[in-house]
Amino acid sequence: QQRVVLMDPSEDPDDILQANRSREKTFVFDMVFDHRATQEEVYVSTTKSLIEGVISGYNATIFAYGPTGTGKTYTILGTDCEPGIYIRILEDLFKALEATAEEMDYTVSISYLEIYNEVIRDLLNPSSGFLDLREDSRGSIQIAGITEVSTTNAQEIMQLLTKGNKQRTQGPTAANKTSSRSHAVLQVTVTQKSRRQAIGEEMRIGKLFMVDLAGSERAAQTQNRGKRMKEGAHINRSLLALGNCINALSEKGGSRAQFVNFRDSKLTRLLKDSLGGNSRTVMIAHISPASTSFEESRMTSIYACRAKNIKTQV
């Protein structure tokens, strides 16, 4: 349930000289799923508990991480008959909000964007070109000119997302025919206001980010050349920046003297509030059972292990 053991496929069990240098690794996580796990199981054990926090005004972030072809987009978006985390969490979010509707007025707005080669594109309105990240007077990061859609219906959102997902930059690589070549970020903002007219009116704002990261595989695996190679370098750069932020946030000793470099990439800058601070972060790491991707699986597990050690100072 909680342990992953990676066996090195190139190892010979009878080789006595290599016995002490085995590359077999064991990782322990909060939850481990094998190939039999259903979408529902994954959702209930990883994501369902975040809804309460978002309604109370905390932020939450869910990452789908791993090499290409291991099922990140499937986990997050799913198919029509096996919906993924997106639709399940939104349905439960609206149910939970309706339960508080007598005391609270709420609005839910969503935006859906992709970060491709370090530029931001709006997936709900692709014709708007590349967008800029700006900081507003309160210090929160905004995207200038992004389309925000307010809705009270999970099905409506799902149609928008399916439409948006068709606009995503995909490209064939040697590892996967429809590899996502960009990071897709769904941002759900829940704003609540009490119906009782009290003095010092307070608003609760909770943000939920769901990030479908681009594949973290090595260039050798995808046999990319030219444009694809450059694109891969950009993907790896933003994943490295994310890794650096996670490292700094999970440093031993928990001293805040450690500088967290959120400005290294657009992705980390956008997620600044939802990595540190009042936030809960879930990383769903995907690995392939194939022996050819042993290296990728090892690196993915190490990366996810670091994310497990994030210490947030609320």
Automatic annotation (TrEMBL):
Domain Kinesin motor: 1-310
Gene Ontology MF: a single term: ATP binding
Stored CDD domains: KISc_KIP3_like
Superkingdom in the source lineage: Eukaryota
Localization per Swiss-Prot or TrEMBL: Cell projection, Cilium; Cytoplasm, Cytoskeleton
Binding site for ATP: 66-73
GO CC entries: cilium; microtubule
InterPro entries: Kinesin-like_fam (IPR027640), Kinesin_motor_CS (IPR019821), Kinesin_motor_dom (IPR001752), Kinesin_motor_dom_sf (IPR036961), P-loop_NTPase (IPR027417)
Signal sequence segment: none
GO terms under biological process: microtubule-based movement
Protein name: Kinesin-like protein
Gene name as annotated: Kif19
